[in-house]
Amino acid sequence: MSPSSSxxxxxxxxxxxxxxxxxxxxxLLGNRADTKILLSKETKCVIEGTFEIGKYxxxxxxxxxxxxxxxxxIIRREINPNGKSRAFINDVPTTLEVLKKIxxxxxxxxxxxxxxxxxKKETRLKIVDDYAQNLIQQxxxxxxxxxxxxxxxxxxxxTTKQADFKKEDGYNTFLLNELLDASLKSNxxxxxxxxxxxxxxxxxxxxxxTQIVREFQDGDYSIYDKxxxxxxxxxxxxxxTNHLSAINDRYSSSLVxxxxxxxxxxxxxxxxxxxxxxxxxxxxxLSLIYQLQQKHQVNxxxxxxxxxxxxxxxxxxxxxxxxxxxxxxxVFEINQKQIQxxxxxxxxxxxxxxxxxxxxxxxxxxxxxxxxxxxKIVLTHKEPSVSGFDEIEILFSANAGIAPEPIAKVASGxxxxxxxxxxKSLLAEKSSLPTIIFDEIDxxxxxxxxxxxxxxxxxxxxxxxxIAISHLPQIAAKxxxxxxxxxxxxxxxxxxxxxxxxxxxxxxxxxxxxGGNNPTNAALENAKExxxx
Length: 533
Hints:
With 533 residues, this protein is α/β, with parallel strands linked by helices. Among the domains are: 1-111 and 415-501, 3-Layer(aba) Sandwich (Rossmann fold), CATH 3.40.50.300; 158-321, no CATH class. The chain is built from 18 helices and 13 strands. The chain has helices at residues 18-28, 59-64, 96-106, 115-118, 121-132, 135-182, 188-200, 202-217, 223-238, 242-271, 276-296, 301-367, 407-410, 413-428, 447-460, 473-476, 503-515, 521-532; strands at 7-12, 45-52, 72-79, 85-89, 92-94, 107-110, 374-385, 388-397, 405-406, 435-439, 466-469, 481-488, 495-501. It has a six-stranded mixed sheet with strand order 6-10-11-1-12-13. Strands 2-3-4-5 form a four-stranded antiparallel sheet, covered by helices on one side. Strands 7-8-9 form a three-stranded antiparallel sheet. 23% of the residues are buried.
């Protein structure tokens, strides 16, 4: 099915399957898939649509989604019987979120439940912005708003951090000074513990070392004398064989090394002295270190030094924070002024068109059979948001002398459909709207009103592609292309099918809509008149 670029009419009996077609289109817009809709429980369902998007300026959206931009873009959904669904744009796999974002730029499905959408503040604001053609002001404001929010977040984070620092600053300074006063050195405790062990056992150590020296070299039968005698004997024997000569050399070297060891032991013995004052100093120092380790819940001095560095960094950061906050305030104030400037410009672009927009809608309401209908568009200011400083409320009254109230509360289904048609008619003159699908917009109308609605649809379709599902001959007669939805039971199961009608078939279908399944000549003539005018 390749619809006309103008007005496409879809007709058919109730229950023939028009809703199935809309459901398929909804899947291309990113709606959730339900496996209950599948005719075959073994074959995947594929829905594909081709969209000519050259007029829609969607380069940014495609770039952000990392999808190749094509003026003739193909969207495809695949639904497997197991419930899994896949989406593609130009054969690139994508998410439903991206599909919805781009799909909403391509298709606008209007049905009576659209009153739910107009209840949303952003929908009403978009209607006004589309009429105001204020894209430049919107972009300027959004840029300013983004910068404002980022600077606001940055300033809040810095001030929160400063408040936290102030709570901890005094205690952190106390802890740091305590560690700095201790003048800690890495591995200090281990050295002190070793020294203390020696000092506390100095007398026993000295006694043992002295005994070693005495046994080795004092007296007539010292160990050294005996080892020296062995060296002389080994030296004599070495004169007979080279093998013993090498052993003698090794023995002599070992004896020299042993002599050096004894000399060092003697030196240590002479230097080991009991020093109660030094013992007190070491105990006091170790006590301080152990207390600091317990306080900070660590096991050695190196971890205390890490904590000391962290405390120094925190205090230094706190000192630098004041400068950063001062700079952040300047940036925030600049952005605050910019958001006020751009926000007021955006609000002004909206306010300036409200009266004319209301008048234009009210004039069109008379054309579609609501002669006493009144629309009033009210703008109120609020705190800055991503959409500006404004909220829009659309008030409506269908009868003279009745004060307008919010449209979502008071408009009937038929009134609402006609009102939205008037709004979209005005917007179509302002911008390149996406393809619009009107689902039974003619509910609750007939006669001359239906004819005027058909003329309005025809007028919109001069510059925009429209698809209208209708039960009224007055609207069907205005189509550039006429499609018929019907049930097909030839395969043994009920299927919904759609086909394009030629001019003769279209005339007959419109005549049936006027006079029933067997239209009279009068009905056919009436149909011709409707098509002609």
